[in-house]
Design a protein that fits this description.
The protein has 3 domains: 119 residues, Nitrogenase molybdenum iron protein domain (Rossmann fold, 3-Layer(aba) Sandwich); 97 residues, 3-Layer(aba) Sandwich (Rossmann fold), CATH 3.40.50.1980; 144 residues, Nitrogenase molybdenum iron protein domain (Rossmann fold). Helices cover 45% and strands 17% of the residues. It is built from 14 helices and 15 strands. It is globular, with a radius of gyration of 22 Å.
Length: 382
């Protein structure tokens, strides 16, 4: 793959499309060219629409193309979301006015400015989420929202199922799932929230913690048990100690045979920090670097931006890690290292199982993958 390849992580447009495509009842319209539509359409595996703007529309205005598209899809969804790309943004069209003139209040339509130059994937996701007419029900004290679910994430289904399992064990009900699963545009939010992905925290409800990394899971589960107290602490007293003992035993067995790996991680900043901490604690791994797809958000380990292939290749050539956690891009850039996929895109593999990265089972699955990848790499090096 050439170094001139473009950004590895999508822009705010795809983030907004990922958010709104995960909300039941919303039809997403990309108001732009077919090129703007192609990436989110093929990545999210969710039906979205496009106005397919041409040079003619750029000169004479994009309103007619938008009206034709809305006329073709209205009635199929309870709400539409129009994501304005670079074309209407650059020519300065007032898309809200176009919609009001043609439809008034007869069609529920959200208009969101999401040109590629407006920000990162995470910013687009959270901006789209904040545009939804969601209501927080402060009286819903027996359930907990799950946020940080994105159709872009290869692990979202597994994360949702695992966190729902832990909520059930803690005696809580599952509230709104932002933005996937049964979550709809008319859902009411519970008064508290836990994060399946700390890099996509919604800001809705009182935060009870995150679910990436076993250390964070312990704290979050403790907060859940303190609040609901209906299970006698079964997760903290039994489930987590059993899982942790299995991780410690497997890692000790590995370290009796091999040296701890030198690791490079690539993905969203806070998530990779949490995973790096787990690798350090249980496997004694040396963290060579964390290459972040989004703006670094603090944490104990140094992070540098790695949003394009050239930067990824530069980091990997400099650090020469034994183990790489990241996407198919990092796997291609460093074929001599052991590899574990933790972020999109993950190409060339069939993914049918709802494998989690979050929660207890997600932590176990990750450490299992890391140990197996490292052992296979050691065998291949002999």
């Amino acid at each position: 793959m050439p170094e001139c390849a473009g950004p590895l992580w999508p822009c705010g447009l795809t983030g907004a499309a990922a958010c709104l495509s995960g909300v039941r009842g919303i039809g997403v319209i990309i108001h732009g060219s077919a090129g703007c539509y192609f990436y989110p359409a093929t990545t999210l595996h969710s039906p979205i629409y496009c106005t397919s703007l041409s040079d003619h529309d750029l000169i004479l205005g994009t309103g007619d193309a938008l009206v034709r598209t809305i006329d073709g899809v209205q009635g199929r969804h309870s709400m539409l979301a129009v994501l304005c790309t670079c074309t209407p943004a650059i020519i300065g069209e007032d898309i809200r006015q176009v919609i009001d003139e043609h439809y008034g209040a007869s069609v529920r339509i959200i208009v969101l400015d999401a040109p590629g130059f407006a920000g990162e994937y995470e910013a687009g996701f959270l901006s789209a989420l904040s545009s939804l007419p969601l209501l927080l029900d402060v009286h819903r004290q027996n359930s907990v929202n799950i946020d940080g679910l994105s159709l872009m994430d290869p692990f979202w289904r597994g994360n949702l199922l695992e966190i729902q399992r832990l909520l059930h064990l803690a005696g809580a009900e599952c509230g709104a799932t932002l933005c996937a699963g049964a979550f709809s545009c008319d859902s009411e939010l519970s008064s508290s929230t836990i994060h399946a992905n700390p890099d996509l925290r919604s800001g809705f409800g009182t935060p009870l913690g995150t679910m990436i990394g076993l250390s964070a899971v312990k704290k979050t589960v403790g907060a859940l048990e303190d609040r609901f107290c209906s299970n006698g602490g079964v997760i903290s007293d039994q489930v987590i100690p059993d899982a942790e003992e299995r991780v410690i035993s497997a890692c000790d067995k590995y370290q009796r045979r091999f040296d701890p790996p030198n690791v490079a991680l690539f993905g969203q900043s806070l998530s990779m920090q949490a995973i790096a901490a787990m690798l350090t604690e249980y496997l004694g791994a040396e963290i060579a670097c964390i290459g972040s797809r989004n703006s670094p958000s603090g944490g104990p380990l140094p992070v540098e931006m790695a949003r394009d292939y050239g930067k990824v290749q530069e980091i990997l050539d400099r650090e020469r890690p034994d183990l790489v956690l990241g996407s198919s891009f990092e796997q291609a850039a460093c074929p001599s290292a052991a590899f574990v996929g933790v972020t999109a895109p993950l190409r060339g593999t069939v993914r049918l199982h709802a494998r989690p990265l979050a929660g207890i089972e997600g932590s176990l699955a990750l450490m299992e993958s890391v140990l197996n990848a490292c052992m296979d790499h050691q065998k291949g090096a002999r």
